[in-house]
Amino acid sequence: MCGIVGYIGEKNCVPILINGLKRLEYRGYDSAGLGVLTNNHSVVIKNKGKVSLLEEKVQKTNLSGKVGIGHTRWATHGVPNEINAHPHYNTSRNLYVIHNGIIENFRTLKKGLEKLGYVFETETDSEVLPHLIDSFLKKGNPLFKAVRLALTEVEGTYGIAVVYEGEPDKIIAARKGSPLVLGLGDNENFIASDVSAILAHTKQVIYIEDGELVEVYKDKFIVKTITDNEIEKEIHEISMTLDEIDKGGFSHFMLKEIMEQPETISNSIRGRILFEKGTSRLGGLTEVVDRLVNSKRIIITACGTSWHAGLVGEYMFEQFCRIPTEVEYASEFRYRNPIINHDDTILFISQSGETADTLAALREAKLKGALVLGICNVVGSSIARETAAGVYTHAGPEIGVASTKAFTSQLVVLALITLLVARRKSMSQVDGRAIAEELMAIPDKINSILRLNDQIEKIASEFHDANNFLYLGRGYNFPVALEGALKLKEISYIHAEGYPAAEMKHGPIALIDENMPVVFIAPKDSTYDKIISNIEEVKARGGRTIAIATENDNGIDSLVDYTIKVPSTIRMLMPILTVIPLQLLAYHIAVKKGLNVDQPRNLAKSVTVE
Q: Is the four-CA dihedral 183, 188, 191, 197 of positive or negative sign?
């Protein structure tokens, strides 16, 4: 969602803030701004649109200063424009605030502040913060206390940074439900919503937790709770490099990340397969594995692409572990007062580890005593810290908003968990070795699919003007149909739907004509004959057909307009292979439509508000 970066030190903060904001562009945003303390007065520059436009504005001013904060905004309250962009001021324009999150009681706070004479200029919820903090400053409180007291009146989520002309030697930052890190340097310190914004300057960070505030000076920092108790914090060393978040010669991050999947899946597997024993070793689950194995029920909770991964996980857990499994949208799970028992395991999946709905559902589950596990990609993220145990996917930074390599790594981790639990229950060593062998072969099989990139691009040329797509799959590949449709919607803005193939006759068949491309995920498995029947039904109605088929299937070519062949593997791992062509198809269609593949409109990489 929105991005935060702040600097205090001896250097000119302006280029540091601009470059930090550029590193945060992948999160999704529609306006940008920065505020800088210069000669003990503040200068705020902001605009609608890209950081590059903000940079042009700033360059015309020769602005410099040693303390500053910057922000990229994704609109929630108020349209995207310069006025609603951050930072926001108090009336005296000597204090300014940047904010990620949503202030749920802002209307109540606003009415109270208006009665005190405060005048609001924007349509945002965030503007209440500088005025509210100012109201406590006017009572004689120092800045840190004024911020702390103001936040005790706020309901909702926030990651904030505050700068004040009256105390120009500090930045105050605080967090509740929106990620925030403190970066430590030599006579300089940084604030950011994502370590990528400050990685060029430091690898030492402190994760700010919910309900914590930090008073940041250039040479020290003080962390306190919102109840004013000082606390000690652990310093973490970031292993990520700048090279990992660069395009590496590819036209787009999304293409780079699709092409990285043999490597990222190898990273997800590395050191985790015990082939001789036919099982897996997942250090993050060591302390809870017995409780996991003896679970009476597994609930997988996620959003978006991670929810699709969870659907595949449901098939795996039920087929091999024989544990009843449910998959829930986190946003629905948290609000419907779910029945949760002590012998349930609830698995939370999130690429960022910061997804707001998933985090809220996690906290609800913890209160009810279930075993709470996480699968996420970002080391040190909120889900990683708040779950009892879990597994990292090791996919590396995923910059493209439309998830690709994170999804396939999630599937691999779910397969590893399945193998671990199933071998402790009823799976034989021989069967365990068969799964392990296929897992180890997956990277090479993906490499062979990626070599079909040119072929898939040609198919995309035939369909980039389509207005609608239908994706159909059965069994393990039904979630792949959902994911393929989602990828196309996200980046090409073409309406697409994923369905279980058997449901085609229950409605979608009415839409099929010569203008409706239909993508079939049709590997040669136990559902193959049924899929072929679906293909015949579409062809009889003039539909245009694309099949994702297996290499040993020569009969399907005469039945469809286009085929994309993938290697064979066992059913539980087939989604890892069949989704790759769908990622490439969506990518090439979007490129041929001239769209911004990495930053699709209205979307954000990390959804940190509801």
A: negative
